[in-house]
Amino acid sequence: MIKFNALNLLLILMSTFTFGQECDCEANFLWAKKTFEENDAGFHYTIDKKGQDTYNILNQKILEKAKGAKTLPECQSVIYEWSKFFRSGHFGFSIIKNDHNQNNVIDKKKIKEQPIVKIDYSKFEKRINLISTPTLEGVWSDGTYKIGIIKTADGYSGFIINADKTNWTPNQLKFLINNNKEEADLWMKDFSKRENLKVDIIGNNLINIGNVLYLKRLSKTYEDTQEIKDYIKFLYAGNKSYFQILSGKTAYIRIPAFDLDYKKQIDSVIAANSVNIEKTENLIIDVRYNGGGADTSYEKLIPFLYTNPIRTVGLQHLSTPLNNEVMLGLSKNENFDEEHQKAYKEAYETLNNNLGKFVSLSDEIVKVKKLDKVLPFPKNIAILINNGNASTTEQFLLSAKQSKKVKLFGTTTRGALDISNMSDVVSPDGNFELRYGRSKSYRIPEMAIDDKGIQPDYYLDNSIPNKQWVEYVQKIMEE
């Protein structure tokens, strides 16, 4: 299964850039519609649920809108509206951002009218160096912008100190955090304004504004607690997994992604710490915001959570010439050994001999995984989950939930698993990329995950901040 990245999709759909290039949206819609109808494994499943008449009415409505859409963003918005009829995940329609069509046009009037924070920077710098107790006032950076924050009557004003390679100039107001430090108005790169974004102050030296702007304090810095240091490590781990001993009773492993590219790194972390895991009573596996990847990337975790045979319901592939080209490409992929390449080639041939049909590439609809032994330790395993989990990560959770050792803690997952194995195809005019699914799970409709998600055994509500989840779950496990 290919990774569903909710953050990337959000950035695509909510892009604040203006693409001035015109396009033939009607032609692009008809292409996307035809390609999706012929190749997506979930198309007829949706039509059976919602009805052909309802779909026909939607198509007529979208076609009229497409005729009036003249720019790339307008067209993308129209076709995205159409796509929501099918499912919320494992689908994409995005502008291909390249030199040909990425024409970032920023309104010069907006730049000129941007509010200015009148301040003497040298005096401001001396002032913050005298502050002994941490406040929001100080010098911050996200890597692109160097920003000063000063207390004003309206709240906390974030002003530009330096912003090379952007259209921003010193003293322009970048954001305004309200007096209770809970919400902010933020001006984006193109000077468009986003209002009432949630503000998360992480310890003494980090600020997250609406999951859009992450600021790290440059001066004056203050010491953070170990809990905050651990949470910051979690936030900035990127796609690297890591292991940590939390106490004599509890170990912790963070796995941010199951992408095939990270399998070796995941396996390496697990192998290097397997001795510690096998002698520790409790294990916390943190997969928050892990959007998926490849099933093989979580194989090394299974022995630690295994207590009884694990049943996995299989899937069937929709055989079309376009879909089958993916299998042919995998058979030539040098990242796979000869055995895997041969298997993909055989799969390609099987699919090609059954064009227009759903084809199972396995002799078994349900696979049952049996291991030789159950490890005495860890005795208890908590898996931290949230709305950022989808695809392969949800498949991992379906397997993990069958263990007597495992409980899920957190919030409901995204729900993007039933229609899977994603393909990307570029529009004839080269401006758009359509993403759709080539396979359909045998679980549906009796055990659908799409648009529903997987619920936790222990719901962690909003009164428990994200940065306290690990400590909170550790306390439950150890008590």
Q: Could you name the key traits of this structure?
A:
479 residues; disordered N terminus; eight-stranded antiparallel beta barrel; 21 strands; ClpP/crotonase-like_dom_sf; 2-enoyl-CoA Hydratase, Chain A, domain 1; six-stranded mixed beta sheet; globular; 14 helices; 4 domains; alpha+beta
CATH superfamily of the largest domain: 2-enoyl-CoA Hydratase, Chain A, domain 1
Spatial strand order of the main sheet: 2-3-4-5-6-7-8-9
User: What is the CATH first-level class name of the largest domain?
Assistant: Alpha Beta
Stretches where pLDDT is under 50 for at least 5 consecutive residues are 1-20, 99-104
Number of helical segments with 4 or more residues: 14
CATH architecture of the largest domain: Alpha-Beta Complex
* Average pLDDT for all residues: 90
Return Rg in Å.
Answer: 25 Å
What is the makeup of the main sheet?
Answer: 8 strands, antiparallel, barrel
Which structural class matches the secondary elements? alpha+beta
